Amino acid sequence: MNVLVNVILGVQILAALGMIGLILIQHGKGADMGAAFGSGGSGSLFGASGSANFLSRTTAGLAAAFFVCTLALAYFGNVRPASSGSVLEGAATAIPGAANVPTPAAVPVPPPEGAAQIPAK
Predict the structure, then answer these.
(1) Count of alpha carbons within 13 Å of 93, Cβ hemisphere only?
(2) What residues form the membrane-spanning segments (predicted)?
(3) 42: nearest Cα among 27, 55, 57
(4) How many domains does the chain have?
(5) What does the pLDDT read at residue 58?
């Protein structure tokens, strides 16, 4: 399962970087007004109408992939092993001879030596 989580994480990182690049390449809605008044910045790599469709669809696809990867990582992050218990209980059973080691509550604690000399009021 660790390999699957790493693959999903890699896809999520690539989708995030791709979205960042595509969003920075796209023109805003106000960029067309500047081109209408003669700024000359209306030329693009994919043509005037094809760039918005190609870039926006690719961005939407990457956003969907990012969203699915995020949900998958959240699911795998909350999956618990079949045995319920704390991490400390699992660590105590992993230590050889840990069954014979008494717990701290079972060990009697002697009173401090100086406490018997203090008078109670």
Answers:
(1) 6
(2) 7-25, 54-76
(3) 27
(4) 1
(5) 93
